[in-house]
Amino acid sequence: MARNSIEWKEVPNFPTSHFVETSIYTDEGLFREEQDKIFNKCWIIACHESEIPNPFDYRTFQHPGGAPLIVIRGEDMKVRSFYNICPHRGNTLLYEPVGNAKRITCIFHAWSFDSMGDCVDISRGKQGYQDRFDCQHAGLREVKTEVGYGGFAWVNVDDDSCTLKEYIGDAMSMLDEHLSEPLEVFHYHRAVVNTNYKLWHDTNSEFYHDYMHYFNRITGMIQPGYFDRKYTGYPNGHASVGSMSIKYDAYEGSKERGVGWPGLAPGGWVLIDIFPGMTYNLRTSVLRMDTAIPLGPNKLMIEFRGLGLKRDTPAERAERIRDHNTIWGPFGRNLHEDLLGCHGQGLAMRERTDSKWVLHGREENMTIHDEGGMRHFYAEWSRRMGRKAYDPYGQIKEQAVA
Is residue 372 within 8 Å of 233, Cβ to Cβ? Predict the structure, then answer.
């Protein structure tokens, strides 16, 4: 039965853990608070070590908390990260997204820095500053950086943060044996979507939306084991989904994958969500990594990486590329559909659309169509924000949600 305006806004008849208020996706003030309380406190994947293989190779990275970063491999082969900001007059240091820089020299006044973040030259420094200021006072702002969990370079702008290992805990246990060999990025692209970052993470946190994907319905949903997969929640908001065997040959024109993955059963599939916006998605022969980088409450950039084994032969690499592009590439069978779903949510939830609630009420014993993965995520969001996801402004009377 259709509802009137009062009925539309009534609090859902679920436990408060099973729905959220849509303003948490659209409010500018809440987004700024998320940057401070979540993104500037959590470990975030900036790139993969294979993207900066040589001394002085670098990548720039727009940190979701707001800071522009440089991730660079030093002469000692260690990966470090720094603000992409000159300490002299606040200029951007490196403009190209990738490159090699033995010296990082600011174009404005030619101040130079090495790959350790040390200032090595201030043009006419003695003449201008005498003994009041010199290179030792002008180092770059370093950011905590660790390489791990498949060779990814993780950054944390909070100097007082826990270690990466403490942050991840046991969440990667299902992938440990599958990440024992060096990996290499063979595919990279970005998508910019007018939506909120949490909506993309929601999509990766549940499989009820497999009704959107004909390819998934045929190769997975109607196959044995699909509905037996279970979500497991971990501290800090992380979650995993159990493996199953994907029957690729059930899709007309497709075939069984010829290249496997170390320790993974043929057709195997494991997914792990890392709070607040990263997903490891290992499927048969390819590891896909999503990194969600919000540009605002209603604009999201997603970095997609496809990875294979560094030891691949040319023939094996060609097969992995084919497998990746068939399903997850920009013109594959799945990715564009997921992006369309999030795009539609972004359209419908904007300010003044009168959107009110998002439901996470499905309970199926934490199996694949249960929405427990999202409930787990928003419990962590609420803890870090000090707000209730179902009532971020404290406007709902307790008796209404009892």
Answer: yes
Whole-angstrom distance, CA of residue 120 vs CA of residue 174: 45
Per-residue pLDDT of 170-229, as tens digits, reads 999 999 999 999 999 999 999 999 999 999 999 888 888 888 888 888 888 888 888 988
Arithmetic mean of pLDDT over the chain: 93
Both tokens of residue 238? 């992380």
Cα–Cα distance measured from residue 298 to residue 197, given in angstroms and rounded to the nearest whole number? 8
Q: Judge contact between 273 and 197, C-beta under 8 A.
A: no
Tens digit of each residue's pLDDT (9 = 90 or more) over 70-88: 999 999 999 999 999 999 9
pLDDT at residue 309 is higher than 80: yes
Q: Identify the bridge partners of residue 290 per DSSP, sorted by sequence position.
A: 279, 304
Q: Say if residues 185 and 307 touch (Cβ distance below 8 Å).
A: yes
pTM above 0.70, yes or no: yes
Would you say the C-alpha torsion 334, 338, 339, 340 has a positive or negative sign?
A: positive
What's residue 265's pLDDT? 85
